[in-house]
Amino acid sequence: MTANIIDGKAAAERLRQQVGLEVSRLVTEYQLQPGLAVVLVGDDPASQVYVRNKGRQTVAAGMLSLEHKLDVAVPENELLALVDRLNNDPAVHGILVQLPLPGHIDEQRVLQAIDPAKDVDGFHPANVGRLATGDPAAMAPCTPMGCTLMLREQFDGALCGQNALVIGRSNIVGKPMAQLLLRESCTVTIAHSRTRDLPALCRQADIVVAATGRPEMVRGDWIKPGAVVIDVGINRIRFEGEEKARLVGDVAFDEVVEVAGATTPVPGGVGPMTIACLLRNTVVAACLQRGVSCGLV
Ligand SMILES: Nc1nc(=O)c2c([nH]1)NC[C@@H]1CN(c3ccc(C(=O)N[C@@H](CCC(=O)O)C(=O)O)cc3)C=[N+]21
Ligand SMILES: [Mg+2]
To answer: I need a labelling partner for 28 at 20 to 30 A (CA). Which of 78, 174, 249, 278 fits?
Structure first.
C-alpha cells in the first residue's frame, strides 16, 4: 500500500479562493480592504522568493500588499521605528517581519514591538499565551495552522484522541503545533534532539509532524502503517554531480510513502498552505480591528 500524497498546493488554492471571496465581501460591504505589510531585512535569496510569493498572492486575493526591504546592517532602532509606523498605519492590518533577523538585532524585542492585533504570524507573547489558554481569538502561527487544516481534512475532522507526535520544539513550529493539536483533543507528545529512542516513540503515533531541520531524518521504519505524516522541513541540498540544489524535507519521503496512510510532499505540501494561512490571518485581523464578523472563522 502506498500513501495518499496530500496536495498542499491544491489545499492552499482552495483556502485562497475562500479568502478572496471574503475580501470582496469586506470591500463591498464595509469598504474594508485588508492590508499586509512584510518586512525583509537583508538579501537572503530564499527569503526574497518567499516575500515575493507572499506579495503576489496577497494582491491576487484582492488585498493591499506593502513590502519594506531594509539593508542587512539596519540598526535595530530603525527597524523598531518602522514597526511602530506600521502599528499606527490604519491601512495595515497585518505585519510580518521575516525571520531570521541578522545577529545584531534582538529578534524577541522586534516581535514584541508588533501590535498583537496585527501580529499575523502569532509570534507575539500575547498571542502565544492566547493560543496556550485556548482563546478562540488567538492568531495562530501560519505553518502549524496549515498543518492542522490538512490533518483535519485527512481525518474528516476526527482528530480527537489520536496519538500525535511533534518532532521539534521551536517557537515557530513545534510548540504552537502541539498547542493546536491539543486544541483538537489529540494526545500530544513533543520530541526533540534529547528524546530517547525516537524511532520507537514514533511507531506509536497516528500523526507525525516532522519539524527537525534535519534532512530526511524520519525514516520509513519509524512509521506505524497507515499513520499520517506531515513534513515541515525545507532543506536545500546539493547532490553530487547535480547543478541545482534540491529541496528535501525532514522526512525520507520515498520510504515513508510506502508505509504511511497519507503524507505531504516537499515542495508542494506545507509551504503553500503556510502562505494561504498568512492571508487568512490578515483578513481575520482586519475584521477584528474593524469590529465586523469574519466569514473565515
Ligand atoms: N516571520 C516569518 N514568518 C514565516 O512564516 C516565515 C518566516 N518568517 N521566515 C521564513 C519561513 C519560511 N516560510 C515559507 C513559506 C512558504 C514556503 C513555500 O511556499 N515553499 C514552497 C517551495 C518554495 C521553494 O521552491 O523554495 C513549497 O514548499 O512548495 C516556504 C517557506 C515562511 N517563513
Ligand atoms: Mg529542535
So the answer is: 278
Q: Do residue 93 and residue 158 come from a single domain? A: no
Write out residues with Cβ below 6 Å of ligand 1: 49-50, 96-99, 121, 142, 234, 247, 266-268, 271-272, 274-275
Known binding positions = 168-170, 234
The ipTM of this complex is 0.96
Using most ligand atoms within 8 A of CB, pick from 9, 274, 281 the residue to mutate for ligand 1.
274
Residue after which a domain boundary falls, among 99, 115, 131: 115
- Ligand 1 centroid distance, CA of 54 (Å): 9
Q: Is 207 exposed, middle or buried (0-12, 13-18, 19+ CB in 10 A)?
A: buried
Q: Give the mean model confidence (pLDDT) for residues 240-260.
A: 96
Cα 84 to Cα 131: distance, rounded to the nearest angstrom: 24
Asked if residue 198 belongs to a domain, the reply is: yes
Q: Quickly tell me which residue has 525516537 as its cell.
A: 198
Residues 185 and 160: beta-carbon distance below 8 Å: yes
Q: Order of strands, edge to edge, in the sheet holding 94-97?
A: 64-70, 35-41, 94-97
Q: What is the mean pLDDT of residues 219-236?
A: 98
User: Quick check: 157 and 240 in contact, CB under 8 A?
Assistant: no
Q: Which domain holds residue 151?
A: 142-271
What is the domain count for the chain? Answer: 2
- The 10s digit of each residue's pLDDT in 3-42 is 999 999 999 999 999 999 999 999 999 999 999 999 999 9
Measured CA to CA in angstroms, residue 238 lies from 45, 48, 256 at distances of: 16, 20, 22
Q: What is the DSSP string of 176-221?
A: HHHHHHHHTT-EEEEE-TT-SSHHHHHTT-SEEEE--SSTT-B-GG
Residue 1 has pLDDT above 80, yes or no: no
* Residue among 244, 238, 235, 222 nearest 270 (CA): 235
Q: Quote the pTM value.
A: 0.97
